[in-house]
Amino acid sequence: MNIKDIAELASVSSATVSRYFNERQSLSQETQGRIQKVIEVTGYNPKRVSNKVDINRNPTIGVLIPSLLNPVFAEIVAGIQQRARHFNYSVIIIDTDYQPERERNAVVDLIRQRVSGVIMTVANPNNCAALELLQEFHLPVSLVHNQTHPETNAYRYPAVFVNNYQAGWDVATQLLAKGHRQLGMIAGQFNRTDRAQKRYEGFRDCINNNPQATLDTVLEIDPTVTNPFTDTNQTAFPSDITAWFCSNDLIALQLTNYLLRHGRLVPEQVSVVGFDGMSIGQITYPPLATVKVPHQQMGIIAVDLLLNSRHHATLSLHSELNYELSLSGTVADVLRTNNTIQSIG
Hints:
The protein has about 350 residues and is of the alpha/beta class.
């Protein structure tokens, strides 16, 4: 990090930065404020001379993802890297562990690395300090999986996504058509993933439209915990619920394993639906019912959106991709005869 870097980030000349350090009073308060902001964020110290080789002159894209443990984000990163290589960009990857407060810290690190732009999945784009900081520094950004809406400030950011609300609605529609009337949902904590929130809202609203159906239980779990279901929380899974919708495939696989360990047959006694279309869910038996999302394509498009933004191309800022319902395997129809309920596997 040198004076030229500070000047570029503050949108001033190198000479202006030099004047800031030597004759600050000659600069306007607004210019001083911009330079000071950059110095505070980057930690630049003009008295500290670095002997390190500058390795960040090659164009680099910063990538912020919530987790390196969820295979979904590995697929997205694979698409990003494939497309970035095509344009001779390298990639820096940082995971934020589903922690909104870590998003800003990660962006500060990427600004110091002098990246050309940032691709990110955040907890909530409508209330995100990291996005605001990128906006201040005029760094191009594109969002992956975060769906923004025209009435929000976040709509100005390029984004690639699926319609999570509609997908949740469609899952409920299919489960209701299969005879399920008492349903439950398990999701990552809504304050840490807006995707789970939207999937829940669509699922809930569809069920509420059916006077014979009820959404009996909604559980929010920590998305970073590898074993969220233990023997101590058996009461959280009422036996009269015949179908569970999970906000991602990892949760669905964990739930299926938990139910089977406690003598509940899937799908003969209870159905389970995930979300994402992870390949590992298709090699289990029975294969996991899910909503398939083209994650690698998302990563590819995210790079295109970022570079279009960087070069001020007049192309669409938002790309909504199709998803595919695959409700077989761990989902069965419900047969109702008098007071008994049976699932037809």
